[in-house]
Design brief:
Structural class: mainly alpha
Keywords: Repeat, Signal, TPR repeat
GO biological process, one term: receptor-mediated virion attachment to host cell
Number of domains: 3
CATH superfamily of the largest domain: Tetratricopeptide repeat domain
Organism: Fibrella rubiginis
Protein name: Tetratricopeptide repeat protein
CATH class of the largest domain: Mainly Alpha
Helix content: over 70%
Number of strands: 0
């Protein structure tokens, strides 16, 4: 008898191990599928595959990391950060996770926090050129130019022909007024990439500062040849021509700069100066007055509305959601009938009666997630956004995988000024498979 039970235990154990192995293999299959889809550019499909891998094996750091990369490629950086957080929690030594999280934080303009991630990535992998470059870029955004210069220099020590680092270091030297030193970076960049107009424009700007106006004009000619819409190069070339007393040529450049940017106070000032030199005092006075008016108005000041997603955009994005009115078996309390009646009445344009019917459906069945969601949709269309938020939250509480409810709650939150909360909801909606969320994320969350 003991032998029988021992044999049975062996069989049961083997069976359990076989099931576990099968489940583990399935998680691996989903992971590999996610990698394949990422490589082919199908980031939505990759995200779903990694989500399945995580469901089957929730403690696998690479699955979270790769899902984070998929989200980042869909411009869902808030959602990506949450996945990188989990990947780092599972493997605190993963330098790439810190680096990628830093990138997503930078994309959200959280440069101070990004610096910490880049620093940790560098501690774990001191020879990762990209980490130094990214840290330098964030330091530049924070106006920490000396530190940025050190980081770009280290990047170039590791990768001497890194064109992005050469350009960034040259620009940083300009910020530090090290114009002579910047010339070498822009010159090398031009040798590596003779078609990069930015390099000629930047070198021309440095030559203007060094009073090499002839050299500046030559560089700026090339920059404009490569990019005829480069306002800054017209301004700098106009200034250089003015210094060489070519006022007619300078006037043409300032005129072109103004046509490209109606708010260019430098353009009006330069053209006014040229007009004065050319004897057109009336035109000069007009330009100088315009330059003063524009310069007194801070044209760079951003206007912050309650939310970048206005009501018109909210209405359009909400209209994307398809109704969920599917025929169900009628329950004893007949809540489904009230729900369907509400849908029909709303289609007839009677929102007030539709909401009354949904109130009755919810009264009869307080766990009716679709009724809460539909009532929220109607309330939102009637501009009761706070009431709509409450209904969407109720629907999500009853059905945590209700992707459309996260979507609607996300766009409403965003429109009311809670951009971070709204974008996180949209991220969750996309993660649950509602792909229209990623278009909104791309347009409004970055």
């Amino acid at each position: 008898m003991l032998k029988f039970y021992t044999s049975l235990l062996v069989l049961v154990t083997a069976s359990v191990l076989s099931i576990q192995a099968k489940a583990q293999q399935t998680a691996v299959d989903y992971f590999e599928s996610g990698v394949t889809k990422s490589r082919s550019g199908d980031f939505t499909g990759a995200l779903q595959a990694f989500s399945m891998a995580i469901t089957m094996n929730p403690d696998n750091g690479p699955s979270y990391y790769n899902r984070g990369l998929a989200k980042a490629n869909l411009k869902d950086h808030r959602g990506a950060i949450l996945d990188y957080d989990r990947a780092i929690e599972l493997n605190p030594k993963d330098a790439l996770a810190y680096l990628s999280r830093g990138v997503s934080k930078s994309k959200q303009d959280d440069h101070r926090s990004a610096l910490l991630d880049y620093g940790r990535a560098i501690e774990l992998n001191p020879d990762e050129a990209q980490a130094y470059y990214n840290r330098g870029a964030s330091r530049s955004r924070l106006e920490q130019y000396r530190g940025a210069l050190q980081d770009f220099t280290r990047t170039l020590e590791l990768e001497p022909n890194n064109q992005s680092a050469l350009y960034a270091r040259g620009i940083t030297k300009q910020k530090l007024e090290e114009f002579s030193s910047s010339l070498a970076d822009f010159t090398k960049l031009i040798e590596l990439n003779p078609k990069r107009g930015q390099a000629y424009a930047a070198r021309g700007a440095s030559r203007v500062e060094l009073n090499d106006f002839t050299g500046a004009i030559a560089d700026l000619n090339k920059a404009i040849e490569l990019n005829a819409e480069d306002t800054e190069s017209y301004l700098n070339r106009g200034f250089a021509k003015g210094k060489t007393e070519d006022f007619k040529g300078a006037n043409i450049d300032f005129d072109r700069a103004i046509s490209l940017d109606k708010n260019s106070h430098r353009g009006y000032y330069g053209r006014g100066f040229c007009r004065s030199k050319l004897g057109d005092q009336k035109g000069a006075v007009q330009d100088f007055n315009q330059a003063i008016d524009l310069n007194n108005t801070n044209t760079d000041t951003k206007v912050f509305y309650n939310g970048r997603l206005n009501r018109g955009a909210l209405d359009n994005l909400r209209a994307v959601v398809q109704e969920r009115n599917k025929i169900n078996e009628l329950s004893g309390e007949r809540s489904e009938a009230y729900f369907s009646l509400a849908v029909s009445r709303n289609k007839q344009g009677d929102a007030k009666l539709a909401i009354a019917d949904l109130n009755k459906a919810i009264e009869l069945n307080p766990t009716y997630a679709e009724a809460y969601f539909t009532r929220g949709m109607i309330k939102s269309s009637q501009n009761d956004q706070k009431g709509a938020l409450l209904d969407c939250s109720s629907a999500i509480k009853l059905n945590p995988r209700y992707a459309e409810a996260y979507y609607i709650r996300g766009i409403i939150r965003h429109s009311l000024g809670d951009e971070n909360g709204g974008c996180l909801d949209l991220s969750k909606s996309g993660e649950l498979g509602y792909t229209p969320a990623y278009k909104v994320i791309s347009d409004y969350c970055n």
